[in-house]
Amino acid sequence: MTMARRERLRLETIEEIKDTAWKQIGEQGAASLSLRAIARQMGMTAPGLYRYYKDRDALVTALLMDAFSSFTTSLEAGRDSCALDDHAGRFRGMCRAYFQWAMENPQRYVLLFGTPVQGYLFAEEVGPVAQRSFLVLQGVIGEAFVAGKIKGEAAALKLPTSLKVQYEALRKMGMPYTPLVTHLALSTWNAIHGLTSLFLYGYSQSFLGSQVDRFVESEIERLTMFLGLKE
Amino acid sequence: MTMARRERLRLETIEEIKDTAWKQIGEQGAASLSLRAIARQMGMTAPGLYRYYKDRDALVTALLMDAFSSFTTSLEAGRDSCALDDHAGRFRGMCRAYFQWAMENPQRYVLLFGTPVQGYLFAEEVGPVAQRSFLVLQGVIGEAFVAGKIKGEAAALKLPTSLKVQYEALRKMGMPYTPLVTHLALSTWNAIHGLTSLFLYGYSQSFLGSQVDRFVESEIERLTMFLGLKE
DNA sequence: ATATATAGTTTACACTGTAAACAGTGTAAA
DNA sequence: TTTACACTGTTTACAGTGTAAACTATATAT
Predict the structure, then answer these.
(1) Mean pLDDT, range B78-98, rounded to an integer
(2) Mean predicted confidence (pLDDT) in B203-226
(3) How far is B116 from chain A (nearest CA, A)?
(4) What is the per-residue burial (b if ≥16 Cβ within 10 Å, else e) of A174-191?
């Protein structure tokens, strides 16, 4: 049995709301997202939206989760642009996808990794979705590690025991791969995020002008070398 | 001749406005900064504030510049906790100061490096003030470089010519130190910012729990080694 | 055909930033 | 010392926001 008509319309409306919200975010930035404006553009009144989302935060949460989904998909696509045994290529591909997605969806990226919109933490249902994108990164490094391709400085890294304990605890809770892999993944994540966000906020650009891409490429290369995936 | 009485009172009021604003930002976050609330707390009416700041953005800009100032001062203090010839120590000290300042002033940090509050770019008068903090970082690396203390991987880094050209253009415009130094400084900045902001937004914490400090310390150490300042 | 769940509107309230007109006060020039 | 003016603030007003409550229309289920 296919979906009931009611249900279908409801889902369509939800999609329309989100689409309209994204359009506004794309045009005016995430900070000034307005329920009333969304309703107006959809040809309905503002309180009507409350049939679909409890409040403004709930809508933002939904947008957040969709954005994470799209982000993760892009990372995976970047990764899969290279063969399974081309660990360096997969790593580079993923890094490039990361930066490029952020370039193409600046407001979305800001929504994910920028200032928490109003209060502090976002809703807990976001956690798992957010972790999925991290797991892609960790997976790339992890697969390289099990293939024995992590070498040099990164492989020789000596973790403080307290950190190791923490990573092992994570592992017991289902986190895949060894402590070293988790550590390297976190470290790499920090690096790429720093690179991306300082650029998005216009800081790097004032130094690098049109050469941002080169800089990003050279940083990706540095990370690849640090992990020992190349040379 | 000392300042006229009028002028003095005016400056005091400006200070009170900013203090009140910071208090609110500290309590409720930067996003929900309200002129009316500030005025209320100061025992005056909202439109009165417009005698001191053109609009909300102008106030935010002023806050931003103060925050940058405080941030830069902290970086300098961290740096100067070690002797002039202890380049590794000065670098570590500055990095720690960076992270610690962000920990102690999360909202302030978010204001500086987080989502641009409403539109996109902030006022141009902020630029120079922002650069000052970067120059501290660059200075530490630059001084180590002229002392011949940058070694290993970092020293051997091969810059793409187009990037080099860009850095040299910056230098002609007054940026101190060589292209390599500028590049390393930018790269390091990215790393520390990534580290800091992912933590502030709660991402790292979900992985690292109470071990964040260890992680940060280990990352600082990694950067120190990358620059060749140690070993 | 009737009962009920859902979708939406109307109205209302408390909040925001900010423009315009006005009043009181300190300062400076005649 | 009186007159002019600049400065600081208030009052009032308007357009915008999120959202709660009451109500209405409509689609579905019985």
Answers:
(1) 98
(2) 93
(3) 7
(4) ebebbbbbbbbbbbbbbb
Is residue A5 scored above 50 in pLDDT? yes
A75-128 pLDDT, tens digit per residue, is 999 999 999 999 999 999 999 999 999 999 988 898 888 765 344 456 678 888
CB contacts, 8 Å: A189 with chain B: 194, 198
- Please give the pLDDT value at position B118: 42
The DSSP output letter for B202 is T
| Tokens, residue A132 | 């999925």
Residue A1 has pLDDT above 50, yes or no: no
Chain A 98-137, residues with CB within 8 Å of chain B CB atoms: 110, 113-121, 127, 130-131
Q: Which residue has the tokens 């051997």?
A: B156
Ordered by where they begin, the domains of chain B are: 1-53 (1.10.10), 60-226 (1.10.357.10)
Query: Left, alpha or beta for A222 (phi > 0: left; psi -120 to 50: alpha)?
Result: alpha
Q: Which residue has the tokens 């630059």?
A: B142
> Is the separation of the CB atoms in B129 and B69 below 8 Å?
yes
pLDDT band at A130 (very low <50, low <70, confident <90, very high): confident
Q: Is the pLDDT at B30 greater than 70, yes or no?
A: yes
Band of residue A201 on the pLDDT scale cut at 50, 70, 90:
confident
Chain B CB contacts of A211 below 8 Å = 162-163, 165-166
Give residues 34-63 of chain A lying near strand C (Cβ < 7 A). 39, 43-48, 51-52
Helix (H, G, I), strand (E, B) or coil at A121: coil
B170 touches chain A (CB under 8 A): yes
Q: Which nt sits closest to B5, CA to C1'?
A: C26
User: CB of residue A10 closer than 7 A to nucleic acid strand C?
Assistant: yes
- CA-CA distance, A199 to A207, in Å (whole number)? 10
Q: Are B93 and B144 within 8 A, CB to CB?
A: no
Q: What is the largest CA-CA distance in chain A?
A: 61
